[in-house]
């Protein structure tokens, strides 16, 4: 069991752990003796903390800088203790430690009482979702093992923990220095009827698998290792919750694609029929749908995750410079990765003070904020009330993880209604018995929508036709259409109507979806198409099956184009090369 | 799920995360027990394949059985293995004990230096040719941006402070205090140009866990770890000059597990037989800040 030890600086975390190791006979031979001699030489009292503060920087300063892992076995279980620094400067390291823990030991100095980081760490444990918390009231020797002092501190801190949603499993009076209450009690604490720290740890429950737990697994990668004639296409990931079984009907979000588990793959063992939470697995699918990293897998009968580009969250920020609104950052939820902006700060919280409310225009280092985030494309997630793992995110800036948080609730975005239509279509879609991969093999190509747009004066139609003709002459199965074919045909009932814009795009996407299902390379020329239109089209036909081409010198709107071409002659060749490179055309 | 299975699943997750994140990933394989467990985990993570090169640093002082074992597994598991050696330092006898340098300098020259070169893609390296069953000069000089290393937090103090994904500076250095945070199962997979990331899937494993896993999975290990009748064996493998065998009659992984849990070694540090750790006080920590594993 992973265990983190947190609390304010100098409240004795490392001492408690050092004592726990010494009292349970878990130290390497001679280590205690060496530290004792070192302390004597420098005229210091034996510090159990020195056992842990291994780095020389730390021994000089007497504080823990980074997270240290300590391995320790009780009679009942193996523990990995993560000793986290209490110094505010190293909050990022405390969070690193605590986010990997199932249980936390929160240490408070009986003499000094509740301090800034006692509050902050308590708050962070709640955000990080640490399941069990044990509070140690340490340094009881300094208050003469006084019961009233302990009870006072306990009731005050218990009230605070409740306010942040934590109910501690135990409050235990201890003295790390004197070894009281760690592995045993002497008569100094005879008034205390609870367990020692060691007994309390061993009694911590472990979360079992629930019967009806919804399946949640983010696609981590899709493997096709061909060496030795291996022809498996394996979707890999680690199960965040629930169980996956051979034969299960699956749904992938945000795409809404559906398939069934054909097999669960494994190396050096018989293929299993089921795998559950915490296991790193690989599956093959019945129908070869196109899925990729970042999609969230659920079973058809499970509650759906929320899919949106907007959500409300609690965020903690650790970056050197404050997080500001309307600047681009990278957001990662599970294995999904998108560009994000902090859209609105609703409340700033100084987790280190009891009043908590703070004011400011940005989220400074070590602050917590309740805020709204806006991503550039939709991601699948759950609110924290439904699931821990699929509600957690981190923010990356300048190559580093700079913050993280939990999603409180999803907010519908402009495409929510259309997205629901697309999911319904996927659910009701009647599949032909010829699979996409059989078609791809026959045609020697994989279907793709090539959207040609560009400057108003550029001849987009001419380009689209030239591209179609060129690919066709090389044997590709391809079809060209101008946007007008749809507007004056399929769209004639809504032509000129208000709010028709979005409906035009939706219908174009539906047509494209059918063309792509037929296995074609579908070329469409259109007037100015915005980034939002492209997002919408991708939602309908699949993110990776769309390529956008801009004809002209420079992109004059917000479009992020896959190819920028300046003439028809060279452009056709460039687009062909891109389709080859991206694997849509066989070499 | 038992503790060992938890460790296994976490390590596999880390492996896959790394493989997805880096374009040119490699793994260090010292042929010791830890990096061999790592290799086994890679085969599990990638369903029998090892889809990246394995790098080996040859100091020329490695015990001969280690090299033979390396080449045997390379063939059996069709591994892409490459090695490098600081041939200049060896030729000029800048080595310990027969040269004019101390142990720490010898480690720097024969291990840290070629490792750093190999990652940057400078200097000569050799690649195993499966058709001819011998090593050729590796024609490619690609640098690597992600390197998987089998170090464990329980080995010694400074390693206990490592992250699963540990970004290294241009000079291959390690700034402990400035390490970025790493939460839940999200890792620092982004990195600026000219730097690389070290990945540590075995961080949470102990020496006992390693042997329990070798026993459970029946992973082939080099014979030097076992007593061949003389009443000694190696607990940790390194260069012949700086690694001492220990007195032990353990003949298989199971004997070793018993010995480590309840026997004579239950309280003796694993690297106690590695001489360079003690020299100069905090020797290993200093070596590691400069890029030693």
Question: Could you name the CATH topology of the largest domain in chain B?
Answer: Rossmann fold
Unreliable sequence segments of chain B: none
Going by CATH, the homologous superfamily of the largest domain in chain B would be HUPs
Using the 3D structure, state the CATH architecture of the largest domain in chain B. Answer: 3-Layer(aba) Sandwich
What coarse outline of chain A follows from CA principal-axis ratios? Answer: elongated
Total beta strands of chain B: 10
Strands of chain A, total number = 27
What's the average pLDDT of chain A? 88
Which class best fits the helix and strand makeup of chain B? alpha/beta
**Rg of chain A (C-alpha, Å):** 30 Å
Alpha-beta content class of chain A:
alpha/beta
Helix content of chain A: 25-40%
Distance between the termini of chain B: 31 Å
CATH class of the largest domain in chain B: Alpha Beta
CATH architecture of the largest domain in chain A, by name, is 3-Layer(aba) Sandwich
Determine the mean pLDDT of chain B.
86
What does this structure look like?
- The complex is a heterodimer of chains A (587) and B (293).
- The radius of gyration of chain A is 30 Å and the shape is elongated.
- In chain A, helix 11 (460-473) packs across helix 15 (568-581) and helix 13 (500-517) packs across helix 14 (531-541).
- The two termini of chain A are 52 Å apart.
- Chain A is of the alpha/beta class and 587 residues long.
- Chain A has four domains: 2-202, Rossmann fold; 216-299, Elongation Factor Tu (Ef-tu), domain 3 (Beta Barrel), CATH 2.40.30.10; 309-414, Elongation Factor Tu (Ef-tu), domain 3, CATH 2.40.30.10; 442-581, 3-Layer(aba) Sandwich (Rossmann fold), CATH 3.40.50.
- Chain B is an alpha/beta fold and 293 residues long.
- Chain B has two domains: 3-205 and 281-289, Rossmann fold; 207-277, no CATH class.
- Chain B has eight helices and ten strands.
- Chain B has an eight-stranded mixed beta sheet with strand order 5-4-3-2-1-6-8-7, with helices on both faces. In chain B, strands 9-10 form a two-stranded antiparallel ribbon.
- In chain B, helix 1 packs across helix 2 and helix 6 runs antiparallel to helix 7 (253-262).
- Chain B starts with a helix and ends with a helix.
- At the A-B interface, strand 2, helix 5, strand 9, strand 21 and strand 22 of A face helix 1 and helix 2 of B.
């Amino acid at each position: 069991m992973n265990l983190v030890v947190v609390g304010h600086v100098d409240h004795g975390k490392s001492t408690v752990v050092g004592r726990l190791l010494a009292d349970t006979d878990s130290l390497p031979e001679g280590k205690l003796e060496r530290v004792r001699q070192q302390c004597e030489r420098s005229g210091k009292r034996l510090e159990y903390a020195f056992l842990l503060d291994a780095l020389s920087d730390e021994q000089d300063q007497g504080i823990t800088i980074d997270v240290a892992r300590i391995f320790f076995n009780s009679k009942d279980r193996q523990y990995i203790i993560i000793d986290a620094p209490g110094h505010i400067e190293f909050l990022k390291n405390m969070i690193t430690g605590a986010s990997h823990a199932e249980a936390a030991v929160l240490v408070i100095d009986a003499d000094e009482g509740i301090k800034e980081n006692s509050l902050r760490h308590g708050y962070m444990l709640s955000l990080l979702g640490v399941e069990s918390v044990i509070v140690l009231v340490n340094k009881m020797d300094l208050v003469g093992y006084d019961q009233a002092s302990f009870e006072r501190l306990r009731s005050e801190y218990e009230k605070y923990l409740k306010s942040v949603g934590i109910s501690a499993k135990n409050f235990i009076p201890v003295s790390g220095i004197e070894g009281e209450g760690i592995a045993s009690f002497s008569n100094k604490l005879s008034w205390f009827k609870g367990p020692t720290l060691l007994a309390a740890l061993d009694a911590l429950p472990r979360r079992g698998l629930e019967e009806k737990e919804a399946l949640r697994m983010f696609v981590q990668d899709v493997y096709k290792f061909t060496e030795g004639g291996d022809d498996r296409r394996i979707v890999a990931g680690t199960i965040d919750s629930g169980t996956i079984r051979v034969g299960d009907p699956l749904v992938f979000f945000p795409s809404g694609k559906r398939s069934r588990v054909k097999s669960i793959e494994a190396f050096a063992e018989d293929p299993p029929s089921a795998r559950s939470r915490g296991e790193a697995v690989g599956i093959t699918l019945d129908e070869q749908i196109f899925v990729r990293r970042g999609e969230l897998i659920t079973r058809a009968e499970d509650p759906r995750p929320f899919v949106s580009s907007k959500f409300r969250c609690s965020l903690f920020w650790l970056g050197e410079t404050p997080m500001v609104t309307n600047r681009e950052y990278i957001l990662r939820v599970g294995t999904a990765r998108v560009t994000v902006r902090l859209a609105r700060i609703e409340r700033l919280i100084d987790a280190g003070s009891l009043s908590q409310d703070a004011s400011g225009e940005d989220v400074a280092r070590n602050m917590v904020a309740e805020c709204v985030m806006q991503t550039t494309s939709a991601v699948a997630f759950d609110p924290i009330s439904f699931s821990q793992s699929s509600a957690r995110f981190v923010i990356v800036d300048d190559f580093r993880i700079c913050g993280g948080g939990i999603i409180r609730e999803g907010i519908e975005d402009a495409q929510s209604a259309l997205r629901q239509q697309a999911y319904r279509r996927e659910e009701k879609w009647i599949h032909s018995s010829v699979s996409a991969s059989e078609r791809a093999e026959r045609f020697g190509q994989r279907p793709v929508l090539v959207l040609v747009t560009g400057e108003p004066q550029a001849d987009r139609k001419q380009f689209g036709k030239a591209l179609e003709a060129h690919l066709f002459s090389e044997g590709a199965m391809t079809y060209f259409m101008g946007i007008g074919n749809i507007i004056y045909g399929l769209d004639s009932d809504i032509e000129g109507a208000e709010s028709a814009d979005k409906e035009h795009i939706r219908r174009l996407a539906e047509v494209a979806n059918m063309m792509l299902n037929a296995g074609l390379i579908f070329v469409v020329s259109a007037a100015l198409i915005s980034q939002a239109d492209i997002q919408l089209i991708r939602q309908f036909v699949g993110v990776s099956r769309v390529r956008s081409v801009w004809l002209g010198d420079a992109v004059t709107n917000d479009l992020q184009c896959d190819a920028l071409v300046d003439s028809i002659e060279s452009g056709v060749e460039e687009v062909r090369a891109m389709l080859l490179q991206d694997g849509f055309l066989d070499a | 799920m038992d503790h060992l299975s938890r460790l296994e699943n976490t390590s596999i997750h880390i492996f896959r995360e790394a493989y997805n994140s880096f374009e040119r990933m490699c793994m260090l394989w010292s042929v010791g027990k830890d990096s061999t467990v790592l290799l086994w985990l890679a085969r599990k993570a990638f369903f029998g394949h090892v889809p990246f090169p394995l790098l080996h640093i040859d100091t020329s002082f490695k015990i001969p059985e280690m090299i033979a074992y390396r080449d045997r597994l390379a063939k059996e598991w069709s591994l892409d293995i490459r090695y490098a050696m600081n041939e200049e330092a060896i030729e000029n006898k800048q080595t310990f004990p027969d040269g004019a340098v101390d142990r720490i300098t010898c480690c720097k020259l024969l291990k840290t230096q070629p490792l750093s070169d190999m990652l940057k893609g400078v200097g000569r390296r050799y690649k195993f040719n499966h058709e001819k069953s011998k090593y050729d000069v590796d024609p490619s000089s690609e640098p690597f941006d992600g390197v998987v290393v089998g170090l464990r937090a329980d080995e010694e103090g400074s390693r206990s402070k490592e992250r699963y994904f540990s970004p290294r500076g241009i000079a291959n250095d390690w700034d402990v205090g400035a390490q970025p945070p790493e939460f839940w199962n999200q890792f620092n997979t982004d990195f600026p140009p000219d730097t690389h990331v070290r990945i540590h899937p075995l961080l949470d494993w102990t020496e006992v866990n390693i042997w329990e896993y070798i026993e459970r999975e029946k992973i082939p290990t080099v014979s030097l770890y076992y007593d061949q009748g003389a009443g000694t064996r190696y607990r940790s493998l390194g260069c012949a000059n700086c690694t001492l065998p220990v007195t032990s009659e353990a003949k298989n992984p199971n004997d070793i597990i018993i010995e480590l849990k309840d026997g004579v070694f239950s309280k003796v540090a694993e690297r106690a037989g590695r001489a360079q750790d003690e020299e100069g006080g905090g020797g290993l920590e200093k070596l590691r800040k400069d890029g030693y594993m």
